[in-house]
Design goal:
The chain is 29% helix and 16% strand. By secondary structure, the protein is α+β, with helices and mostly antiparallel strands. A two-stranded parallel ribbon has the order 1-2. Strand 1 (30-35), helix 3 and strand 2 form a beta-alpha-beta unit. The chain is flat.
């Protein structure tokens, strides 16, 4: 999606999300929502977050086969 801009991202993006390092400490229920056509956060990354959320007392992952980054919440209604 970002093409050449992807290489420049590290020069302008100063907020590094360390979600994978933090999600394992969350004990509250978590619902992960992802779309197989997400061009920003690939489904594989969401799956890794789900796998790492070992302390959550209830966790679920929902994958929309038609969802992209901006419409996953609505395409399967």
């Amino acid at each position: 999606m970002f093409g050449v801009l992807g290489y420049l991202k590290s020069l302008v993006l100063t907020n590094y999300w360390q979600t994978i390092d933090l999600v394992g400490e969350i004990s509250q229920p978590i619902l992960f929502v992802t779309g197989t056509r997400d061009e920003v956060v690939p489904t594989e990354q969401t799956q890794r977050l789900f796998d790492a959320s070992v302390k959550s007392r209830m966790r679920e992952i929902w994958v929309s086969e038609k969802g992209n980054h901006n419409n996953t919440w609505s395409v399967d209604k």
